[in-house]
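Continuing the series of single-chain predictions for the mutant panel. This is the parent chain; the variants come on the following pages.
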Amino acid sequence: MNDTKEVYPREEEIGLENVRKVSLEEIINDYETTGSSLSPNYVAKFKRVFPYYKVATLVLVGCFFTGWWLSIIIQKEQRHKWLIPTVLYILLMIRLLSWRNRWLKVLFSYVQKVWYFFCDIVYERLLPQRKYRLLAGASITLAVILVATFVSPETSFSKRSDRAISFCGLVVAIFGLWATSRNRSKIVWNAVIGGVLMQFIVAIFVLRTKAGFDFFNFISVLARELLGFAKSGVAFLTNQKVSEIPMFFFIVLPAVAFFVAFIHIFYYWGVVQWFIRKFALFFFWALRISGAEAITASASPFIGIGESAILIVNLLPFLTIAELHQVMTSGFSTISGAVLVGYIGLGLSPQALVSSCVMSIPASIAVSKMRCPETEESISKGTVKFAEDMEGADNSKKPQNVLQAFSEGATLGLYTASTMLIQCLCIIALVSLINGLLTWFGNFWNIKDLSLNLICSYIFYPATFFLGVPRNEIYTISKLIAAKFIQNEYVAYDMLINEAPYNQLSERGTLITTYALCGFANLGSVGITLGVLNTLSKGRRAADIAKNIISALFSGFIATMMSAAVSGMLINDLSIFAKASSL
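Parent structure:
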């Protein structure tokens, strides 16, 4: 019997005997790695080729945007819109010039040395004792606030007496936080003073300067256009008339779902992480907070408390009590970018909403650092790192291409929108049940229409007074704040826009109320936050989260009210907000 292996003629001709045999598992792994079994991974190929053509690519991109910017400046009909394109052009040029260039790090190292040199002169020579440095910082902050508040002339909707009440409200909030602090001797006043000053500077930029209005109005216009694209999707699924129906289901939820899917594309490209990292580095450097606190505080207004906590998921089990309190406070003090787009669709002032979100970042830090000062040593002190940057991070579930990222974002958007829907449904139903029981009991005491909203509206009456709203509107606005706290901010905003007497408030009252309602500090968010953080920490911080969440809820509520009080101090020209709302 012949043992020689018989070779098929066609194999011998083309040399198939030298071809390596692969298993089905290897093919699947190769598919998961490259994103396609038929075509190469073009993203990976570009990353390999890019270093050789880096200069040429950056020069071409720079020339293209330089031509774009010059074309705007040259045209007379477009020249008046120079501010936003110029800011974008400068930022883009800085990014292109600094694209992985070592010289930039060297340059910034020298800038840092010069900065620390002058700081040492001020700290060590002029103000050698810490108490004098704090006194000087507090005096400068107070002077800035007083000058900006009272120097500008009075108007019919911005009297100095109203501004004085708003200023007193800010002072009362800070004093109340100090009085109820868990450890007054451990309060880091540098972070508190810096946070209040930053909040005020942002408010001045938005409410008193044309550049600030143009910048935030530009963002607002983009948000409104994004809302219009979501309407196109609704029109495709139903019809054009249905997409124009001003209902929560047809206006807010589609915008939320689309925005989450859309932002995941930029998350896949690293744009979101880049912006959050820059914000986090700034607050980490300016307020001397830990890396975990800086990341979550900076990310909460953009992506919400759940997604911002994911950025530090590997650190969650090891956060100090103060850091955990700060993470939750940041989430309660603002709204996320997803619901922001939906609320703009209701007809609210987009400029007020966007600026309130940004103002809440330093405000939440200042409030939390007073209410729950740091008494432990943080493992993220001195560094700003995302979970994906840390050792042992599981990055295997990252999307392989932009389509997968968009698909996963759409799924998360559906989950977010459905969560909002079911939360609104259940919370409103539960509150109605409790109100029904309270009304039944109240009838025996001859109290008509006793309800949670009625009780809380009287509780929040003093806080509403200190916002500086018109006297005859205090109780009406107090009821809106109560509705926001008991139910959620959407219910309160819907009442503000569509129900009498709330939609008949003065311009000043409406604007301050818009700021006061712009936060997730409500009872429904407590359950969501508990579930998200317990899941991400795998139950290891459940007890700490439960003990601190109510304190964080009220801290976030106070931070939002501080933003409203600051807006009441600085409101001078309400016409710009009317223009923004009519876009």
